[in-house]
Structure formats: structure tokens, C-alpha cells
Amino acid sequence: MFDSLEVKAITAMAHHLARLFYRMIKYGSQCVDHGMETYEARFREQQLKWLSKKAAELRFRLTPMQAPSA
Predict the structure, then answer these.
(1) Contact 34/43 with Cβ under 8 angstroms?
(2) Secondary structure of the chain: what % helix, strand, coil (to 5)?
(3) For the whole model, what pTM was predicted?
């Protein structure tokens, strides 16, 4: 049904959620929705960081492109 890698991922996520739940109960923090724009900006930053690291490993350099003018 699940291979060992999937089992490890499920266990890690369960532990992560348990720690989040514990902190919310212990410290009484509220769940705050930061909006989709915040999530997308953070995801983009993570992707750029990962791509830069991967390019450096392969001895490449990333250069930003100019946005196409309309």
C-alpha cells in the first residue's frame, strides 16, 4: 500500500501537525489567514532559492528576465 518513503513522510507530517496543535493549545494562538498573495510570494521565494542552489551545483548562473511589455 505505502512504500517506506511515504510512511516516513506521513509520520513526519503527523508529528509536525501534532506540534502545531500543541503550541496552539498551550499558548492560545489564533489561526491567522495571511491570504493567497502571501502564500504565493513565499512559494516563489522558496522556488527561486531552490533553483539558485541547483544551478550553482550544476555550475550555472541564473539571470532574471525582463517582463514582456504589453
Answers:
(1) no
(2) 65, 0, 35
(3) 0.51
- The length of the chain in residues reads 70
Q: Where are the alpha helices (DSSP H) in 1-70?
A: 4-27, 36-57
Sorted by where each begins, the domain ranges of the chain are 4-57
Digit-coded pLDDT (tens) for 4-39? 889 999 999 999 999 989 988 888 877 778 899 999
Distance CA 49, CA 33 (A): 24
Distance CA 51, CA 64 (A): 12
- Taking a C-beta distance cutoff of 8 angstroms, is the pair 25, 36 a contact? no
Determine the Cα–Cα distance for residues 67 and 47; give it in Å rounded to an integer. 18
C-alpha cell at 13: 507530517
